[in-house]
Structure formats: structure tokens, C-alpha cells
Design brief:
By secondary structure, the chain is an alpha+beta fold. Helix content is 31%, strand content 25%. Bound molecules: guanosine-5'-monophosphate and manganese (II) ion (2 copies).
């Protein structure tokens, strides 16, 4: 009601500052996508975020935007610590450092031959998937949680859950150095203990696929993603540990919000000024949970490598292309209102997309820009893009994170009623292994927007550059 979007051009919509909004909202969408966004709660959430103390620039919605807890999924917002800026757990999300990594094999998809079903069976046996699933008593249990939380992926490599070359290809080299295990509750540690190396619930997945279209030959070659290359994509986060950290700090932050007299349009936006000790504690715990997520994806990578070696032989070695975080808050330097400042960028269901030459990028990829991974859905496709100067100038160096949901889980289940989903997936030629039929119903392609539309928008807006498209062959769903 009353939240009119003003068209700026073919892929940008302005949500003019009104009421208690301190800055404008900016939503990226084309004619097709805006119909799924307009009049939804997500637009209200973009406006709500624009009301928070110390928000700078604009409250941004990516084309894959949809409703989330407090902040929209597909939302980006930056806060200035010197202007009373805040940190908000809802702006990071429950699944702290949920993210995606892409691996490549030296094989072509056709080399797989008849091995795909067996490969999927082995992955499904070896790697726990589904809500709350862990390893029980097996090898990944009872690791040194404090070191894991403090050191992230480097620790994983040290204990044999990875290869040293992996580290350079992970955002932050797989470790946020401010991690503070002491700020993580015992309950959170307990929940994470046997979940290192696990997929999690239904939107998370391990997907075998191949490069089926290339838009930038040179960049694709540099990333090892020539047409036909057999790939593996892993999407997961910090599991029960991150969820518990979020829960714990929402309670703390609600108290602080009241105490600081911060008036919120929505309780789910509970937050704390970046200068206060609760904010520091949350940041320390969030970074520890982020390191857990990096280790989680790293441990799964190693499991996938073992399965590939067993089924396809040692020459099927998997190399990490890149690992991105899409639920995180980070201090970064950005140009705001003509002046370079350090701000706390919240990306929730949004991917960092740094431009060519950025010092944070691994040396061998610095000339290209940061790889940006956009999973689509389990039957159509996913994309690999690169970060751009446009993103750096306009979106705090951020891009979309996927297709984004179109239907709620409940709506998706209803849409699946009376259908033979196994037959449909077999018809589409995709080997699916899922923890339940319900997962498959909730995760049908039609539950998501068409990721090609999302990619068209970000490419046209200049906040991402297309490199390659991937097609799924086999999907393990949580
Ligand atoms: P989220 O982190 O928001 O749960 O999911 C990120 C994106 O992953 C979703 O917006 C959706 O586009 C994509 N996605 C979900 N399930 C699958 C899948 O099984 N395969 C692929 N390739 N993408 C998926
Ligand atoms: Mn995710
Ligand atoms: Mn997640």
C-alpha cells in the first residue's frame, strides 16, 4: 500500500524515500521480473531497511529478491559506523555464510558415460543431506571446534579436508580473521559438531553439471570452464551452528534495540549500533559461523573428490574454480556520496562482485574480476559471471545470488499435487537424489524464477558480466 515504484530505465526501479526512510530504495528488474516483485512484501522490506540508523547510499534489491526474515533475500545495504550505523542479524540471515562453490573436472560431460547414477548413489551414501542430518559417530565428528571456527578453510586443509591450492580460490581465503569462538554459544557449537561436511535442507544441493554455453571464451578458459566441461556445484552454509548464532543474537539485539531507542518498522530488523559491544560479539560469532560454513563446503568438496576418484579414477580430479558467500556482513571501503568510506555491507542472498583489479581478488584472477556464481534450479541452468566496475560503483560491489523463489514452499507443494515428479525429472534427463519427496516438490523448477531473466537484468545493468552457463545432470538435494 503506497509503495509505488518509479521506473528509471529498462532494468532499474526507484523506491523514493518516504516516511522514515533515510535513503531511496533501488530494485533491479525487467518487465517480466517486476511483476513477481511489485506488490510483494519484499518491496516493503527494501523500504524498511532504508529506515535503519546509519544506512548509506541506497537500500538495494536484486532481481532475485523475495521475502526474507526482516531483510529481503536478494537485499544489499551498507551502514556507516560513524553515522550510528548498525549491524542486524536479519540482514545476514539465519544461514550465516550460506554460499556456493564451483568445481571443475578435467573431463568432458560425455566422458561420464553410464557412470552418473552410480556417482549420484555414492554421493548420497557418503554425504548426509536433509534438515538436521549429521555424521553421527563417523570421521568428521568431534573435530577441534575452536580451531575450526577461528581458522576456517586453512584448518580444514591442515587436517586433510582439502588441498592448499583450494584456499586462494575461496572468498576471504576461507577465513574471516575476526572470528571469536568465545562469542558462539555452547548450544550452537553442539548443533554444529557433527554437521561439518553436510548438505542441509532442501534448497541446498550438490549438483553435477556441465558447461553448456560460453559467452566469454577467454574468461571461461582462464576459469577452466570450456564448453562441455564436467562441473560440480555445492550450495550450503553453516547448518545448525549458524542458525543458533542468529537465534541467540536476535534475542540480544531485540533488547539492545529497545535500550537504544531505535524505532523499527519491523521487529525482525533488530539491530545494534556497530560501536557497541553486542555488535562486536555478534560480528565475532558471525565470522566464526562463516568460517564453519567455509569448512563445511571444503569438507564436502573433499568427500566429492573421494567419490569421483572411486567411481571415475584419479584423473577425474576436481579443482576449485571459486567459492562465494551470499549471506554475510563485511567491512569494506566504498565510495559513498563522492567520498571513500569504510562501511558495513550486509549481503543477504546477494553475492560480492568485486571488479577487475580489486586487491581482495586472488592474483591469478585479479585481471578478470571476481567470479560470481548464480545457481538457477535443479532442471534448467546456472550461470557463472564476473564482478564489474559497475557493481562497485552502484551496488557496493554486489550482484544477485540465484534465481530466487517465485512460489513459497507451500505453494510449490500444492503445484506438485497429483503429479509424478520422478517421471518428470527422468523425462528431463536429470538424476535426482533427495532426502524426501517433499523436498523435490518444494524445489521444482517452477518454484523459482527463471535465472536467465535474473542474469539478463544484471548483465544489462552492468553489475555482472556473463561468462558461462551450466546445465544440471545430477542433483543431490537436502
Ligand atoms: P538460497 O540461498 O536463497 O536458498 O538459494 C540460492 C539459489 O539457489 C536459489 O535462489 C535458486 O535459484 C538456486 N537453487 C535452489 N535449488 C537449486 C538446485 O537444486 N540446483 C541449482 N542449480 N540451483 C538451485
Ligand atoms: Mn544459500
Ligand atoms: Mn542456506
Amino acid at each position: 500500500e503506497g509503495l509505488e515504484l518509479e521506473r528509471l530505465d529498462s532494468c532499474r526501479w526507484r523506491l523514493p524515500r518516504q516516511g522514515r526512510m533515510q535513503v531511496d530504495g533501488l530494485i533491479f528488474a525487467n518487465d517480466a521480473l517486476i511483476e513477481d516483485i511489485r506488490d510483494t512484501e519484499a518491496v516493503r522490506q527494501v523500504a524498511n531497511v532504508a529506515c535503519l540508523p546509519g544506512v548509506v547510499g541506497r537500500s538495494i534489491g536484486m532481481p532475485d529478491i523475495h521475502w526474507g526474515f526482516g531483510f529481503p533475500i536478494g537485499g544489499v545495504a551498507a551502514f556507516d559506523p560513524d553515522q550510528g550505523g548498525v549491524i542486524s542479524p536479519g540482514g545476514v540471515g539465519y544461514d550465516i555464510n550460506c554460499g556456493v562453490r564451483l568445481l571443475r573436472t578435467p573431463l568432458q560431460a560425455e566422458d561420464l558415460g553410464a557412470h552418473l547414477p552410480r556417482l549420484m548413489d555414492r554421493l548420497f551414501e557418503r554425504i548426509p543431506a536433509g534438515m538436521g542430518r549429521g555424521y553421527g559417530d563417523t570421521l568428521l565428528r568431534n573435530r577441534d571446534m575452536r580451531r575450526l571456527l577461528r581458522e576456517g578453510a586453512a584448518w580444514a586443509v591442515e587436517v586433510g579436508l582439502g588441498e592448499p591450492e583450494d584456499l586462494a580460490r575461496i572468498e576471504d581465503r576461507g577465513c574471516l580473521p575476526g572470528a571469536d569462538p568465545e562469542a558462539v554459544s555452547d548450544r550452537a557449537i553442539q548443533r554444529g559438531r557433527d554437521q561439518v561436511g553436510t548438505v542441509g535442507s532442501g534448497n541446498h544441493f550438490i549438483e553435477i553439471g556441465c558447461v553448456d554455453d560460453v559467452y566469454d571464451e577467454a574468461a571461461a578458459r582462464r576459469l577452466g570452464l570450456e564448453a562441455g566441461t564436467l562441473t560440480v556445484m555445492i550450495h550450503s552454509g553453516s547448518r545448525g551452528l549458524g542458525h543458533q548464532v542468529c537465534d541467540d543474537f536476535l534475542v540480544t539485539m531485540e533488547r539492545i534495540t529497545g535500550r537504544n531507542g531505535i524505532e523499527l518498522p519491523d521487529r525482525q530488523l533488530a539491530c545494534a549500533p556497530l560501536s557497541c559491544s553486542a555488535a562486536r560479539d555478534y560480528l565475532g560469532a558471525m565470522q566464526a559461523a562463516a568460517n564453519f560454513a567455509y569448512v563445511n563446503r571444503q569438507a564436502m568438496t573433499q568427500q566429492v573428490r573421494r567419490v569421483f576418484a572411486e567411481v571415475l579414477g584419479e584423473e577425474a580430479h576436481l579443482e576449485l574454480v571459486y567459492d562465494v558467500s551470499h549471506n554475510i556482513a563485511k567491512f569494506e571501503r566504498h565510495r559513498v556520496d563522492g567520498e571513500e568510506r569504510e562501511v558495513c555491507v550486509h549481503r543477504k542472498g546477494a553475492t560480492r562482485a568485486f571488479p577487475p583489479g580489486h586487491p581482495e581478488l586472488p592474483e591469478d584472477l585479479r585481471g578478470l574480476g571476481q567470479p560470481v556464481l548464480l545457481p538457477g534450479d535443479m532442471t534448467r541452468y546456472s550461470y557463472v559471471l564476473l564482478g564489474t566496475q559497475g557493481a562497485y560503483a552502484e551496488t557496493f560491489g554486489s550482484c544477485a545470488h540465484g534465481a530466487g523463489r517465485r512460489l513459497s514452499r507451500r505453494q510449490a507443494k500444492r503445484a506438485a499435487e497429483g503429479r509424478d515428479l520422478d517421471a518428470e525429472l527422468a523425462e528431463a534427463g536429470i538424476e535426482v537424489r533427495a532426502s524426501s519427496r517433499q523436498t523435490v516438490a518444494e524445489e521444482l523448477a517452477e518454484a523459482y524464477k527463471d535465472v536467465s531473466d535474473v542474469v539478463d537484468v544484471v548483465a544489462h545493468a552492468g553489475i555482472g558480466r556473463r561468462v558461462a552457463r551450466l546445465r544440471p545432470l545430477g542433483v543431490l538435494k537436502g
